[in-house]
Structure formats: structure tokens, C-alpha cells
Amino acid sequence: MILMKDVHKTYPNGVTALNGINVEIEQGEFVYIVGPSGAGKSTFIRLMYREAKATNGTIMINDLDMSSLKEKKVPFLRRDIGVVFQDFKLLPKLSVYENIAFALEVIEESPRNIRKLVMDVLELVGLKNKARFIPDELSGGEQQRVSIARAIVNKPKIVIADEPTGNLDPETSWEIMKILEEINSSGTTIIMATHSKEIVNTIKKRVIAIEDGLIVRDEHRGEYGYEI
Amino acid sequence: MKFRTVRRHLREGFKNIARNGWMTVASVGAVTTTLILVGAFLALMLNLNQMADNIEEDVEINALLELTLEEDQITTIGDEIKQINGVDSVVFSSKDEQLSELVDSMGEEGKSWQLFEQDNPLNHVYIIKTKDPQDTIKVADKISDLQGVQEVNYGQGVVERLFEFNKYARTIGVVLIVGLVFTAIFLISNTIKITIMARSREIGIMKLVGATNGFIRWPFFIEGLLLGILGSVVPIAAILGGYYYLENNISERINYSFVELLPFNPFAWQLSLIILGIGALIGVWGSVMSVRKFLKV
């Protein structure tokens, strides 16, 4: 489902972020990406939804070849991938409802379906009573749940989360993880970059460790492996 | 694009006007100020242009015919003149008509000229108007070459300078208007750009959620259109009101034949339409061009 072969990424300023990544992730897996800051985790993740482009190597996402994917087709790739960001990236002037509905308006869903799908997903993340609030009126955990709701509302095959619990207190982090596990249990691939030792060591999943632009460890039911 | 998406873009465009509050006010303000300037200047220039036209249209060529000509020769010359390129109308004026005109124009003193009625020393005259007043000199030269034409008068010397002056005045007017419109475009699109720059992050987010460039651009298109239209409301009101006042209070007091304001209807309405058009165009242009920069995510 996700396949990377000998992927290199050098930024225009000369910084080499990835130095030959080889990895295969099957549909339905739950994968943690761990490693020190600046090791290439974020770049690795951003390659998958094409916010960054690989300098060298092959990346296949949902049978699409990233290197030959035309700029015009990028939005369509992103509709099959839900992305959850550390800083939530919600539209500040839109309500919770409108933020989630946006992902459906983009695919030209009918208004009736939009209503139903948004309310369903709000139910799932437990924010049904806050549909009319704007992001600023919510706590960090609530905003992250909106962000997750937006990422999964159009039933993508893959959900990518870049440190989704990075800005949240431990208790809220567990709530977020519960939601992600629930999504995963319905067959969605989840790829999550994280710095949280507790989460990785408690909810045991496949762990991929990246250091200096290379995968140094890839184990199923792995450990976090770093001291904080 | 499905119809529901069209509706969605329209709705979002309208909502953005409200969502952006003071930014909207700033943009509309910029459009309003510049359009008032453009409108006032356009009104002035178009009226001056009209006055210049009026003066030029008063220019006519008098072709004085030789005294010895027979009637059929006179007719032939008239036909020849009509053949000349650029001639609009040819009117024959006999020497008797010329005399009575002269007498009339002299007023009291003219009475003494009436004595000439028995032995009229004047020439028969063809009075020629050209289609384009600028052709006067060219046409006059051709007429003077005709057999049987003694002399042509069109206000030699004065007319050349008048045309020269009008030509420069018009060129300067066009340059000023174009300059002003460009300044307006620059000012307005810059203001709009600032309001959109504040939303560059939002545009980036939309792209990450899977919106195509077109999907993001349409509401901005609508928003820019609305900004332009809203911004032209006050200038149009000012033009209609101000012009109505001018026409009813000022123009009656000026009594030179060529100083005549263009009539309120349709001129003020046409001008309003132009202002609305410029406003809408600049609004859309400023908005769409500004978004373009932030779409590369």
C-alpha cells in the first residue's frame, strides 16, 4: 500500500533529510515513526501526502507513483489520505462543523450526505455538542479531535499523524490514541510520528526508527527505544 | 463542477465578506477612494473632449467660386467636391444669401451694406463640412485645386493651431486616465493582497485537505467581485448626484455655445456603468492574482 525504495531527500538549502529509505507498509497497519528531532521523521511523513517531493527513489502510495504524479493530481491523492497535524491546522474562521464539512465539499458530496457524515464523525470523536464552536473556543485536545474528524470524514485508506499528541497533556493524549486505534480497527492504515515513550511502549505496534535520514530499526510490537 | 459546488462557492464568497470584517472595510475603502478619483477625472476629461469636438465641428470650408461661372459649371464643381474623400456635406449658398448673412451679422452697421443688393460683389459659395474635422485642411487643399474655385477659407492659421492644441489635450487626457486607472489597479489590488496574505495559511490548509486550486480560487473570485461592486456604490452615488447638481446649477450660467455639459441622461449612467465595471474588474483581478501566490503547497 505504501512502498518506498531508496528514497533520498535533499532540500534546496543543501540539508539532506533522507538518505536511502526502504520501507513497505501494508493496508491496515498501525506504525509509529520515532527518532530524534531533525532525524527526518517529518520529511518522511510529508513525502507521503506530497507536501515534499523526493529528490531520488520511488514512492508508491495507493498504487500511485509520487515521482510521476502531476501537480494537478495532488489534491486527489490528498483526498485518499487524512492528515492530522501537531498544530491542528484548522481554518480559524470556520466552525467545527464547517471545518469538517470542508473536506467533503472538496469532493462535491451532496449537502444531505455532508450533514450526516459530519454528525457521525463528530459523534465518534465526542464533539457533537460543539459543532458550532470556532477552533479558538476549544481546548487543544478538542481541536486535535476536530482535526482527526476532518482527516477521517471521507473515509481515507491512510491516516497520517505528525506528532498528534505533541501539544497535548498526557490525559488528552490517551483520548486521541483511543480514537486513532478505533479508526485503525476499521481497516485504516495509521502512520504516526511521535516522541511519546509512554504511548509507544503501552500501545504496542510496529515501530520504525529513523536516524540521520536512515531507517535504523523496524520491528513489530517494538519499543520506543530512546531515553527522554 | 457540480451545481451544488457553484452554490457553495457563492455562499463562501458572500460569507468571506462578513468573516473578514475590517479587512473588507479596508478593501472597499480603497476601491471607493480611487474610483471617486477615476470617476471625477473621467467626467471632466470626457466633457472637455466633447467641448473640443464641438469647436472642431464648427469648422467648415468656404469655397468661393469664380464670378464668371455659368450655372451648370457651378453644379459640376459641387459634384466634384462631393467626390472628394472625407467630405460629409456640401451646401450651396448664393451670393445673395451670402450678402444677407453678412448684413445680418453686422447688425445696425450692416444696413449700409444693403446698398450692394443691386450690384452684389460677393461670390457664390459652397460650404463644406468634412466627416472628420481633422481632414479639413487636406480637403480644403484639394478643393482649392479645382477649376473654377477662386479661394478657400476655413480659418487658415487658427484652425491648424486649434487642431494641434486639441490633439495634445486629448493625448494628455488619455495618458492621465490610463495612469490613474493603473494607479487604481495597483492600490486596490495591493490592499486586497494584504487581506489575502493574512489568509495565506488558510489557503495552505485547504490545499492539504485536498482542495484543488480552482476550488480555492472561486470564493475569492466572488469575494473580489463583491468588494469591487461594494466599493463602487459610493462613487456611483457621488457621480450621479454631483453631475445632476452641476447640470442643473452650473451649466445654465455659462453661455458659451461650445461649453455645454454632456446630458445627464445617458452620460452619467454610462459613466456609472464604467465605474462599476472598473471596480468589479479590479476587485476580481486583485483577488485572484493574490491567491495565486499562495496556491503552491
Automatic annotation (TrEMBL), chain A:
Homodimer. Forms a membrane-associated complex with FtsX. It comes from Virgibacillus halodenitrificans (Bacillus halodenitrificans). This is Cell division ATP-binding protein FtsE. One of its GO terms (cellular component) is plasma membrane. Its main location: membrane. The keyword Ribonucleoprotein does not apply. InterPro entries: AAA+_ATPase, ABC_transporter-like_ATP-bd, ABC_transporter-like_CS, ABC_transpr_LolD-like, Cell_div_FtsE, P-loop_NTPase. Part of the ABC transporter FtsEX involved in cellular division. It is a peripheral membrane protein. It holds the Pfam family ABC_tran. Belongs to the ABC transporter superfamily. It comes from the Bacteria. One of its GO terms (molecular function) is ATP binding. GO terms for biological process: cell division. It is found in: Cell membrane. Residues 2-228 form the ABC transporter domain. SUPFAM superfamilies: P-loop containing nucleoside triphosphate hydrolases (SSF52540). Keywords: ATP-binding, Cell cycle, Cell division, Cell membrane, Membrane, Nucleotide-binding, Transport. The keyword Transferase does not apply.
Automatic annotation (TrEMBL), chain B:
Its main location: membrane. Pfam families: FtsX, FtsX_ECD. GO terms for biological process: cell division. It is a multi-pass membrane protein. InterPro entries: ABC3_permease_C, FtsX, FtsX_ECD, FtsX_firmicutes-type. The keyword Nucleotide-binding does not apply. Coiled coil: none annotated. Residues 59-152 form the FtsX extracellular domain. It comes from the Bacteria. It is found in: Cell membrane. Residues 175-296 form the ABC3 transporter permease C-terminal domain. The chain crosses the membrane at residues 21-46, 168-189, 225-246, 266-288. Keywords: Cell cycle, Cell division, Cell membrane, Membrane, Transmembrane, Transmembrane helix. Belongs to the ABC-4 integral membrane protein family. FtsX subfamily. NCBIfam families: FtsX_Gpos. Part of the ABC transporter FtsEX involved in asymmetric cellular division facilitating the initiation of sporulation. This is Cell division protein FtsX. It comes from Virgibacillus halodenitrificans. The lineage of its organism: Bacteria, Bacillati, Bacillota, Bacilli, Bacillales.
